Amino acid sequence: MKQSGVAHIIDGNSYYTLERFTDVPVILASEGLNGFKHENFSSTDTERLSVFPYGPSSGGMVESVYFDILTQGEKIEDVRYDTDFKNRSIKISGLSMNEGLLRMERMNGVHAASYSTLFCQICEKGMNLDVPEGVELLRVAMMEAERISSHLFVASRLTGGASQNIAHMNILLLREDLLRAIASVFGHRYFFGVNRIGGIGRPVNLKEFGKKVRLISDEYVEIFNTLMDSRIFIDRLDKSAIIKGEHSSGPALRGSGINRDGRNFHRYYEGLDFKATTSEGGDALARFIVRSGEIVESVGIIERAISRIGEIKTGSQGVREVEGTISGGFMETPSGDASMLLKIRADKIESIGFRSPSILNMEAFAESIPASTFADFLFGYESLGIWISEMGDLL
Amino acid sequence: MKAWILRSFKKGIITTRFPKGKNEVASPWSTTPVYRDGNANPYCPTGAITNKKVDANLCISCGLCYPEFEPSMDVRGSISHLSVPALKKSIRLYSIDVGSCGACNLEVMAMVSPQYDMTRLGVSFTNTPRHADALLVSGVLTPGMMDPLRRAYEAMAEPKIVFAIGACAISGSLLGKSISDALKIDVIVPGCPPDPFTIVDAIQKSRGLR
Ligand code: SF4
Q1: Residue B120 falls within a domain, yes or no?
Q2: Domain that holds residue B109
Q3: Any idea what the CATH number is for the domain that residue B121 is in?
Q4: Chains A and B: how many Cβ contacts under 8 Å?
Q5: Residue B153 in 3-state DSSP?
Q6: S-S: B169 plus which of A33, A350, B89, B164, CB 3.0-4.6 Å?
Q7: Which chain B residues touch A193 with a CB distance below 8 Å?
Q8: Which letter does DSSP use for residue B194 in this model?
């Protein structure tokens, strides 16, 4: 199904939807489901201005995505995007829950811990499966380590784009150190294969992990403070791609001063004493500040989670057959909140509804760009941590 | 400025000696699993296992064969079907994502980080296939990227090398088609995603340096 602004499933004549930050499916009329469409510029636009095509494959972007940039010299008047070039149309319906999990890990591999946890949690809820607290806390530790890694990646893109080469290299170094630590603890740099429905897939040894992420975060804070003294760096991000209001997700939402973080509403995070990071301004700089604050906050969460994790047994509890149920959930991924609905029957996924944070943030980005310059385009885009991979169809 | 310089000195040399020396680390399940104990043919979602042996081209690093199998920790599992000595001194890479989850893209980019410092080996990225000696292709081949992939390949000058980075590009994994539907693969880089050391090793093999 194509993603829209709301996760939804069509079941007979009913549309089940999931509002943001909630896990209870509601029935909604179909008119509420507006998809995001790629539209072309009108001929009156292109008479006055030139269209600069960018993509779908270009050395400057991490993933394949196409933009039509309507421009007058350095100034951008408008932008249209097409994220369908690399759409894999991943088929989940008709598969067993375990087969679905393998695909969810590979939907956005960079955020595999968050998406595999979201998927497992919804399946477990649908089957009324009790998961040991230690497994839930381990999932939190994974997702927070993933957040640090993802935010470091965004920080590296911003510093690289601003030609802050020493900071750029130092951040890449920290990220690689973190990935190596993750690999040694979890067996995989992107957490593939750790989550299983109802449990975990392999033994993990968290002994030195908290200390390691603390060291990485301390070093990052030094780099961050040095960067915040650099007028050159700040000027590049300041007032770039200003996003205001509710129609964005994650650091973009919190960077516009809105204190909303899915972790505050998620039961996995209860008792982990966590404070959402916000900033004002709504620009690339505000998003960078939010991400930097979140790196430090995530370390605290990891430490507290690890202190509460007892012994965890490896293995899954197996899948229970269910009558036919629609179950939903949300997760605050590093890029923002994602919502998912699953209809489960027997041990199979009958249908899936999904809304990624990137679908909201891409729309917000396109709306923020008019009246910007080409330099703002890069910093605006990179500061949002958009992943095209998660914007494709899940069938 | 002073702060940056001091920090760099404090760090000392952190770049690997690989490929001359040994790789310091490996991402365990990104290396091809080897048989350990028990059932010789445990469940594998891609059918990569036959009688205690794993076909690296099919393995998606899921770990479902654990505990019968365990990671080999061997990062030199890539296969190059050619060797281009003309590129021994310098090779320029163009990375193209034809339908990836993003992880392979980031492992390719990881080679820039100081731990690998690919420039010391004469390896660099270019922003256009026109200037590239090699295409590093990641992801399953989606219909929308078929044409951009072919055009990127046609834009390159000879000699040109095609790398399939990761299980999706090699075999289509669980999610789609292999890139071999569009181009002949010269270098196979297994893993889901491949360890950065495996990518470095594959690049060296393609230019006859291993
Ligand atoms: S890791 Fe997964 S794909 Fe690879 S051999 Fe084992 S079960 Fe098969």
Answers
A1: yes
A2: 79-206
A3: 3.40.50.12280
A4: 163
A5: helix
A6: B164
A7: 29, 61-64, 66
A8: P
Instruction: Give the DSSP H/E element, type plus range, for residue B34.
Output: strand B33-35
CA distance B54 to B74: 13
Residues 6+ apart with CB under 8 A from A31: none
Q: How large is the angle between the packed helices A133-161 and A209-227, nearest 10 degrees?
A: 30
Alpha carbon separation from A385 to A147, A311, A335, B168, B192 (Å, rounded): 11, 35, 6, 23, 22
- Residues from chain A contacting residue B113 (CB–CB below 8 Å): 169, 172-173, 175-176
Residues present in chain B in total: 210
Least confident of A3-7, A10-14, A15-19, A30-34: A30-34
Which of A239, A180, A223 lies closest to B27 in space, CA to CA? Answer: A180
> Residue A330: which of A340, A322, A321 has the closest Cα?
A340
Task: Decide if A306 contacts A357 (C-beta within 8 A).
Answer: no
pTM of the predicted model as reported, rounded to 2 decimal places? 0.94
Does the pLDDT at position A32 exceed 50?
no
Angle between helices A97-105 and A112-126 (to 10 degrees): 160
How are beta strands A50-54 and A336-346 bridged, if at all? unpaired
Greatest mean pLDDT among A16-25, A177-186, A245-254: A177-186
Handedness of CA B193, B195, B200, B205 (dihedral sign): negative
Residue pair B53/B35 in contact by the 8 Å Cβ criterion: yes
Mean pLDDT of chain A: 90
Q: Rounding to the nearest 10 degrees, give the CA dihedral for residues A302, A304, A308, A309.
A: 10
| Rounded CA Rg of chain B | 18
Rounded to two decimals, the ipTM of the complex is 0.95
Q: Which residues in chain B are closer than 8 Å to A108, comparing Cβ atoms? A: 101-102
8 Å CB contact of A59 and B127: yes
CB contact under 8 A, A106 and B126: no
| Pocket of ligand 1 contains residue B87 by CB under 6 Å | no
**Phi-psi map region of B147: left, alpha, beta (phi>0 left; psi -120 to 50 alpha):** alpha
Q: How far are the Cα atoms of A301, B19, B150, B194 from residue B198, in angstroms, in the given order?
A: 33, 10, 25, 6
- Taking alpha carbons only, the member of A189, A144, A111 closest to residue B25 is A189
CA distances for A181 relative to A178, A196, B19, B25, angstroms: 5, 21, 21, 10
Is the pLDDT score of A184 beyond 60?
yes
Domains and CATH numbers, chain A: 90-308 (1.10.645.10)
- C-alpha span between B14 and B113 (Å, rounded): 10
Six token digits for residue B114:
């100081």
Query: Which stretch of DSSP H or E encloses residue B70?
Result: strand B69-71
Establish if B136 belongs to a structural domain: yes
- Give me the residue from B61, B62, B126 closest to A59, CB to CB: B126
